Every structure is written in structure tokens, then in C-alpha cells.
Amino acid sequence: MEPVMASVPDFSNAEKAISEDNSAEAGQFRCHVDEIFQKVDELEQKVNEVEQFYLNTSKKQQSSSKGSSIGKERDKERHVPSMKKQQQDASRREAAAAKRMQELMRQFGTILRQITQHKWAWPFMQPVDVKGLGLHDYYEVIEKPMDFSTIKNQMEAKDGTGYKNVREICADVRLVFNNAMKYNDEGSDVYLMAKTLLEKFEEKWQVLLPKVTEEEKRREEEEAEAQLDMQLVREAAHAKMVREISNELYEVDTHLEQLRETVVQKCRKMSTEEKRNLGTALARLSTEDLSKALEIIAQSNPGFQAMAEEVEIDIDAQNESTLWRLKFFVKDALEHQSKSAASTGGNDNRNHNNKRKKEIGDAIGKTAKKKSKKPSS
Q1: What's this model's pTM, rounded to 2 decimal places?
Q2: DSSP string of 91-155?
């Protein structure tokens, strides 16, 4: 996407070309120019926002390009929900999912009660009394201690620190028994008790697991659908922004055309000396600025080939508007070029693509020679 600022680079000093007797008109012109630049700055921010959005969208589409063409066609036909409806749907989905998860946790709680009520469950009901039992190496062997009272507290927590899903509880129940089997010798009472209860737990867990898997799959599908809806909402919003930018750019272009006409009407005629100095200054431009200068000429000369290998510029053939636009652009470009050269030692720009600059300079020189040979009127 081309930078918006490229559309209005050369009106900032145009009032200098207006007769000094028309200071009021010059001030009014300056005001119009300031308004345009402010408008262009706003449009540039919007364009950057839209460009970044579609850049991110493109990356996401490339990373998730595994979807079938049928699925993509279905996505295109989806109704684009409003942002408010999207938020309402998200709240309803979250509430329904939370309710379903609560039911799964209730069913898991039944399994947990059956395990904890077993006659061999008593060693695992409370945290291991490491100090009382003299288990000095316990924390060296066991990285994360776990017991059923801790699990129960986590299940009943109301401050948001509790379990988020059933699999988290399942993992901690297994940890209780695996810790006991890891620390105690195989064949010991505690080891056998832990192993037996773990097997009973796994049997009961396998009964509940299909429901857990089904819920997880449902949640995943709902999340994917919600993300797609949100993406469609954002795309619709940015599509609207693009339309607005297009309309605003049209207004800016119209305003610019009016200002160009004003410049043509109010600018004094450029002298022969000024034209000659302008031709000399053009040859001093960097390759990048020289290309921009050629684009300025091309704007008022549709047949001019700015990107051709050999370019011949007839300074005397340019209209006054183009000449003044070139003069202001060249002046600003050379000032910036001079500052850049001073900061870098002046060596970088000096040797950059001299061939192209020489070609343009030679073209200007050829035209100047042709004009000098014409008989004076």
C-alpha cells in the first residue's frame, strides 16, 4: 500500500510563488495547505491500521490453510454479526459452558467421594506430616506434594484460584497416589494402598472421560466459531473504514486540484535564469528524489516515461505549475540531502547510482543546448 503522504509533497511552500502583494491570499492558501496535511496525517494513520489488520489476517490465513475449500465457502456465506451481538453471544456461550463444566465437576466429585471413603484412603486425606514422621528427604524426592484435603479446597474455591476443568482435578488425584508410590518402597503398605486406589480411580475415570472429551470438543468448536465471527466483525469494520478512506481521499484529491489551479493562476512566471538553475539542481538529486521529480513531471505530461532508461527533460516545455512544484520539491530535497550528508560524512549519497543521475543530467543538458540554438524571436 503506497504511503498517503506521497499525494501532497509540494504545496507546503507554494505561497512563495504567489505575488507578495497578495499576502492575504497567501495566508489563506497556507491555511488550506495545513488543513490538507492534517487530513492526510489522519488518513495515513487509518491506512496503516487497515494495512496492519490485513497483514495480520493474511498471516493467520496462511498458518491455518488446512481448512477445506467447502469450509471456506461456508465461512464466506456466514452472516456478519454486530459487535454487540457478538459480545452477547460470547457471554451466553461462556455461561452455558461454565454450567456444563460444573455438572462434570459434580460427577467427578461423586467419584472422588467414593475413593476417599474407601478404608485405605486415610493416609492420603491430609498433607504428609514430613516433620512429625521424620521424612527429611521427602521434598528432595517429591517435587509437588498433594493430598485430598488440598484437592477439596481447590474444588470449593470461590476466588478464582480453583480448578478450571475436570482434567486438572484428575491430574492432582493421580499425583496423590503417584507421590506415595514414588516415595514408599514397592511392597510397603502405603505403596499397595496407593496402587489399589489409583486403579479403582482410573476405572471410574474411564466412565466419565467420554463426557469430558465431548465437552472439550464442543468448547473447541465454539471457540473456533467465536473467533471466526469476531474476524468477520473486524473485517466488516475495516471494509467500512476502507470505503470511508476512499471517499476522503477523493475529497483530498479534489481539494488538491483546486489548489493546483490556484497556484497556476497566482504564480508569477518563472524566469529563464530560474529554469536554468532548476535544471542544474535536478542533476544534483539522489536517485530516489530524482525519481520523485520525474513523477511530478509525468503528472502534467501523460506521455512522459518517467521510468524509461533514457529520459529527456525539456524544462522550457513544462507549464508554470509543474516548474514551481519542481522548484519547491528540489529545494526541500537538496536541503534534506545536505543535512544527511553532513551527518554521515557526505560519502554515502555522493556515490549512489551516479549513472542514473548522469543520464538525467545529460538529458537536461541536451535540451538546454537545443533551446540555445533556436533563433530568438
Answers
A1: 0.47
A2: HHHHHHHHHHHHHHHHHHHHHHHHHHTSTT-GGGSS---HHHHT-TTHHHH-SS---HHHHHHHH
